[in-house]
Each structure stands twice: as structure tokens, then as C-alpha cells.
Design goal:
Shape: elongated
Protein name: Vesicle-fusing ATPase
Oligomer: single chain
GO molecular function, one term: metal ion binding
Subcellular location: Cytoplasm
CATH topology: Rossmann fold
Order of helices and strands: HHHEHHEEEHHH
Structural class: mainly alpha
GO cellular component, one term: Golgi stack
Cofactor: Mg(2+)
Length: 189
């Protein structure tokens, strides 16, 4: 017995898009200009698997932008990279638990590797990577906590002064470096 399953109609494609972007939506990582209804209309003749592949490709493109941010930071004598809501970025789900192994590995590699250019270490260059999470278990389960050299529980970092207070507690940055970081963060939320 054979059964033919037809391609999804526009409503079906919208449901599939909602399923495969739900974690991004929940984590606030789906850009505001993404219109799933428009995508459902434009993906006529796409199977469910092809729509899933489209969503994965979009997520990987976003990941490569993160890699570019780290590369740009490595070129600067003093840089700050903020990875906010890391559990949303790795698509962590405590039920299972499930996560994106590709993204976890990429973050682990980006954070763990020393700054290099043409195979030579950037001596005297500093990159501060601030990663925030509301679910430490998400990082512990994926061994991401080992990639970071310093862990601190703080209230929500909503102002530059909060970041500076955390840096002062660590003691690795000079007061001049802290001033530069604070200045670069001023006006941001």
C-alpha cells in the first residue's frame, strides 16, 4: 500500500514555519521584520523538510554573523562582545534536553580560543566576552561554563555601571580599560 502526501498549502506552511521558528520567537531572536505569513506565501511547492532546511539555513547565517563579530573583536586592542540570552541562542530546551550542537560547539570554540591573527597570538590585546543566561544549567549541561574563565551571579545588567561593577569584582581590567568599556557601552541598553 502506498500513500501520497501532498505538499502543504499556505496555512500548512505557516504552521511549519511557526514550529521551526518558535524557539527563536520565544528567545526574542527572530528579527522584527520577519513576516512568516509572507514567507509561507513565497514558499509554494516547498515540502515540510525544505521549510525546515530554510529555517536552519537562516539560523546558520545568523551564527556566521556572530563569528564575524568575534573576528572583528580580535582585531581591536580592546573589545567587548556581549552574548545575551545564550540559552536562547543555543536553542536550549530542558525537556529532553535539546539544543543546537552546531551553535554550542561554535560558541565554545569562539570563546575558548586565544586571539590570533596569521597564526600569531595578539599579545597585549584583550577581548571581554560577556554572556548572559537566566538558566545556568543550560550552560553547565553543554560544558559551556568551562569555556568562560569567570562566572558571577549578578542582577540584570541594564546599565553600563552594572557591567563596570562586575568588572571591578573580577579585577582583570585596569581602571582605564574599564572607563573605555563604560564609554563604549554608554547610550546602550
Amino acid at each position: 500500500m502506498q500513500m501520497e502526501i501532498s505538499l502543504p498549502d499556505e496555512d500548512g506552511r505557516l504552521q511549519i514555519l511557526n514550529i521551526h521558528t518558535s524557539k527563536m520567537q520565544q528567545a526574542g531572536k527572530l528579527a522584527r521584520d520577519v513576516d512568516l505569513k509572507e514567507l509561507a506565501a513565497k514558499t509554494k511547492n516547498f515540502s515540510g523538510a525544505e521549510i525546515e532546511g530554510l529555517c536552519r539555513a537562516a539560523a546558520f547565517t545568523s551564527m556566521y554573523q556572530l563569528i564575524s563579530i568575534f573576528d572583528d573583536g580580535a582585531k581591536s586592542p580592546l573589545s567587548v562582545v556581549i552574548v545575551d540570552n545564550i540559552e536562547g541562542l543555543i536553542e536550549y530546551n530542558p525537556v529532553g534536553p535539546r539544543f543546537s550542537n552546531f551553535i554550542v560547539q561554535a560558541i565554545r570554540d569562539l570563546v575558548s580560543q586565544p586571539l590570533k591573527a596569521d597564526g600569531l597570538s595578539f599579545l597585549g590585546r584583550h577581548m571581554l566576552v560577556l554572556a548572559t543566561t537566566s538558566c545556568r544549567e543550560a550552560l553547565t549541561d553543554q560544558n559551556l561554563t568551562q569555556a568562560f574563565s569567570w562566572h558571577v551571579h549578578v542582577a540584570m545588567l541594564s546599565r553600563p555601571e552594572h557591567v563596570i561593577a562586575a568588572l571591578e569584582e573580577d579585577g582583570r581590567f585596569t581602571s582605564k580599560e574599564q572607563q573605555i568599556i563604560e564609554k563604549s557601552l554608554s547610550g546602550r541598553r
